[in-house]
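Q: Got a minute? One more chain.
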Amino acid sequence: MSEYILCFVLFCIGLYCVLRKRNIIKIIIGLGIIEYAVNLFFVLIGYRAHGRAPILAKDQAILNMVDPLPQALVLTSIVIGLAVTALLVAIAIRIYEKYGTFDITKIRRLRG
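A: Always. Here it is, folded:
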């Protein structure tokens, strides 16, 4: 149960970074932390104590197997998260080239 609480704390830290920070790079890092917290939560859902890998064999019975669906979802989420992070960094670089700052309050005042 404590793993779920720590996962929630990690999610709250990322949410704090997204909502309260004014630097675009810190916001992107906060989104990454949120993504890691959600991925960790999915892995925790599929975990079973003393579980074995989800590989079927003819001579073995299916006992206490780890759920493979959350693992597949996390792998897909990692790939999508990498693409989103790369896109956000590219947008942040373009904003810096145009405005010369990563501070969103200064960017709002410039409106150019």
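A: The chain is about 70% helix and 0% strand.
Q: Perfect, thanks.
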